[in-house]
Design a protein that fits this description.
The protein is of the alpha+beta class. Helix content is about 40%, strand content about 15%. It has 16 helices and 7 strands. Strands 1-5-4-3-2 form a 5-stranded antiparallel β-sheet. It has a two-stranded antiparallel sheet with strand order 6-7. Helix 5 (about 120-130) runs antiparallel to helix 13. Residues about 290-295 have low confidence and may be disordered.
Length: about 300
């Protein structure tokens, strides 16, 4: 059992309107099985996050309705944003399934929703760390940076490092955490304009993604990964992902396809291509493996 945080506890109860996969909307925020900022245990789902008011810790217990508790300076903001975080603002009423597989998964999982944190920085930092490396590498770096430079939060969690904390990290510390020079430069460039990047949530859609892409080192894939989580962008397809096009191709066409072919195949779903891709991935079909797995590279050795 997790030790319950001490200090002032704020609470909120929220009842979903219709079928709603509450936990599924929150899990895209988890960065690996040992994420210092996210935990799932017998006491519920736990999230530590940065807010304009400071760090907050959120615990969710789900039993039909959602029982939320929050602690820390950011507690009120986390509770205010709870419905959107769990996908209540996600409107999929105009979605039309153009593939039998998509239609079947949508029928079986009517509660799939896109959650929105309402904030850019935490998810942007994680997305940059995940650029062009395996999940194992990215999660290891995320754990190290959060535990060493993040803000300790109640119940043993750590909120991700703030922009200010990031800019104070020495070069050798980056190297120790396993972050190469290119990603390090992108993190620092984003940290310097982090306040302005929060406007991407207000802009939303393609305009929000375009704002993020003004930072050197942030491209279409990174902007999409942020948009999916920060404002629940249903059209933010992760073009450039190492696996996505092949997973989509094998599931829908029975063969490997390129990113351009994936965009062509999913064009009928615009402006909800990301949602369509999620339905395809939820089918769990995977793709055939004909070669060894990609070997992670440990940048700490160089």
């Amino acid at each position: 059992m997790t030790a319950i945080p001490t200090g002032t506890e704020r609470t909120r109860h929220w009842v979903p309107d219709g079928p709603h996969d509450v936990a599924g909307a929150l899990r895209p925020l988890r960065r690996g099985p040992h994420d210092p900022a996210f935990r799932e245990d017998a006491d519920g789902l736990w999230l530590a996050a940065n807010t304009p008011e400071g760090v907050g810790t959120l615990r969710l217990r789900i039993a039909g309705e959602v029982h939320a508790s929050a602690w820390g300076p950011g507690a009120d903001l986390l509770l205010d944003g709870l419905p959107a975080l769990l996908g209540a603002s996600d409107d999929d009423s105009d979605f039309v399934a153009h593939h039998p597989l998509v239609a079947e998964v949508r029928r079986r999982r009517p509660g799939m929703r896109l959650g929105a944190t309402g904030r850019v920085w935490d998810v942007l930092l994680a997305a940059i760390i995940e650029q062009k490396v395996t999940g194992t590498e990215a999660h290891r770096t995320w754990r190290d940076l959060a535990r060493r430079f993040g803000t300790p939060a109640p119940s043993g969690l750590f909120a991700p490092p703030t922009p200010q904390a990031v800019m104070g990290i020495e070069d050798w510390e980056w190297h120790k955490a396993g972050l190469d020079g290119a990603r390090r430069r992108t993190v620092l460039a984003a940290a310097q304009v982090a306040g302005r990047l929060e406007r991407a949530v207000e802009l939303g859609g393609a305009a929000g993604r375009e704002l993020l892409c003004k930072v050197p080192g942030i491209g279409v894939w990174t902007a999409a990964e942020v948009a999916q989580r920060a404002w629940g962008d249903p059209d933010a397809l992760s073009v450039g992902d190492y696996h996505l096009s092949n997973l989509i191709g094998h599931a829908l066409l029975g063969r490997r396809i390129t990113d351009d072919q994936m965009l062509e195949e999913l064009a009928v779903y615009e402006p909800q291509r990301h949602r369509a891709a999620l339905y395809v991935l939820a089918a769990g079909l995977g793709k055939p493996r004909f070669a060894p797995r990609f070997s992670p590279r440990d940048y700490r050795r160089f």
